[in-house]
Specification:
By secondary structure, the chain is an alpha/beta fold. The chain contains 18 helices and eleven strands. The chain has a five-stranded parallel sheet with strand order 6-5-7-10-11, sandwiched between helices. Strand 8 (about 280-285) and strand 9 form a beta hairpin. The chain is globular, with a radius of gyration of 25 Å.
């Protein structure tokens, strides 16, 4: 065996491990250096020493091959994605200091999951296992086939828009599309921040253009959207796609987003639980254990002035202004806020002023008014309908082991938006007409 062959074998294995996300960048460099050193040492070694080096080589090749086989086997099965099955399909486009995500295109699967709070707290015994379906469109977003070709409504946001924890047919964008009989394009990405949502829209808007009037619904989340990084100020004057030179590197890194072995190990041994465990609280209602996020989050500030003075809120204001600048002709921006479980059921959880009167929601409403942006309140109908339903039938609008809405919550949100938009959108052609034109 020549030194060149040894280098080619070891370096190829190292690159495969890196592409699959099994080796970090620094480890790849170390492994390649090891390959080069081993090859050089082999070339000038005696036969006896070559025998010893070959033992190291076979150990490396055997271990690497075993890890690759395990990784590929896990990727062939979706049964291990108990948290967010769709996260394994995340792909990234780098934009300066920002990573913009979408999902792998034209993918479809279903699998069993647990609620995020159940998993992150390690309390999987009180979780609610459920089977969810996921389907991505030709652009890498969670939509039915025709919904993003020429949409009348574009939904922008994080997991509350994406529909984490629910099947495709149950999320509010799908329900709203059926109610209005119009295409609603869901650009939601689980875990996205407002600045990522801004970049997502700016980079996707041209293919979403429509000749008639359209609506862009930005759904903020009361729970964590003040966690944006204000160090990114000032925002760029113009948001452009990444250069072609980065395309190959990006495509390689996309594979690294879905390292199945890491996800499998982290889920089996709850490697992600410790940092979050203390922030996930429990309460009991009618004999059922309910998990919820600690309401004493950065958003739950005790005064309106404190909220206004927070640096991250100033960042959020700039993002919304920039989003207005990016709007297409005849497009209206609509702002709404997804409330937390504790804000909707504030009488059941530890009641304090920040739950009864959520300042993030109120100040978002004031911001929308000051910038002449339409604001749709979904907190009030969620409180009224969800609490009434809970009292009468014991059914929740949120998953009891999850941050997010279940199908009931999505239904309430879709109906609220429908009643706000039905008169205006009824002026446009129906969904069947758009589908015929698209085909």
């Amino acid at each position: 065996m020549s030194s060149v062959v040894i280098f080619l074998i070891t370096s190829t294995l190292a690159i495969l491990l890196w592409v699959l996300g099994l080796l970090p960048d620094l480890s790849l460099l170390v492994t390649l250096l090891f390959s080069a050193t081993l090859s050089a040492e082999w070339h000038r070694s005696s036969e006896r020493k070559q025998q010893r080096l070959s033992n190291y080589l076979f150990i490396f090749i055997g271990a690497s091959t075993a890890v690759l086989c395990i990784e590929l086997t896990l990727r062939g099965s979706h049964h291990f994605f108990h948290l967010f099955p769709s996260q394994a399909l995340l792909q990234v486009r780098h934009q300066k200091n920002i990573s913009i995500f979408h999902y792998q295109k034209d993918k479809s699967f279903q699998g069993e999951i647990l609620g995020d709070l159940s998993y992150l707290s390690g309390k999987t015994d009180i979780g609610t296992p459920r089977t969810v379906s996921f389907r991505s469109d030709s652009f890498g977003y969670r939509n039915s086939r025709a919904n993003c070709s020429k949409p009348y409504i574009i939904a922008l946001g994080d997991s509350f828009v994406f529909g984490t924890g629910e099947s495709q047919e149950n999320i509010w964008s799908q329900k709203l599309s059926k109610l209005l009989n119009k295409p609603v394009c869901n650009l939601g990405i689980a875990g996205a921040t407002p600045i990522q949502e801004l970049f997502t829209y700016a980079l996707e808007k041209n293919r979403l253009e429509h000749q008639g009037r359209t609506y862009l619904i930005l759904m903020l989340f009361s729970g964590n959207d003040l966690g944006v990084d204000h160090s990114l100020l000032p925002l760029p004057q113009k948001i452009r796609p990444q250069s072609k030179a980065l395309t190959l590197l990006t495509s390689l890194r996309n594979s690294q987003q879905s390292c199945a072995l890491y996800q499998f190990i982290s889920q089996k041994f709850h490697l992600l639980s410790p940092p979050y465990k203390d922030h996930i609280l429990t309460t009991t209602y009618r004999g059922k254990t309910i998990l919820y996020w600690d309401p004493e989050s950065p958003n739950s500030l005790q005064s309106e002035q404190a909220l206004k003075n927070q640096q991250n809120w100033k960042m959020l204001e700039q993002i919304i202004r920039k989003l207005e600048e990016e709007l297409l002709a005849k497009q209206e921006l609509i702002l709404t806020v997804a409330p937390t479980k504790a804000e909707v059921y504030w009488k059941i959880f530890k009641s304090n002023n920040s739950l009864q009167r959520p300042l993030f929601h109120l100040y978002s409403q004031q911001l929308a008014k000051s910038q002449n942006i339409r604001f749709i309140d979904i907190l009030t109908p969620l409180r009224e309908k969800a609490n009434k339903l809970l009292e009468e039938s014991g059914e929740w609008a949120y998953w009891t082991d999850d941050v997010h809405w279940n199908s009931i919550g999505h239904e309430i949100v879709a109906e609220t938006l429908f009643h706000e938009l039905e008169t205006e959108v009824s002026q446009s052609p129906p969904l069947e007409t758009i589908s015929k034109i698209a085909s």
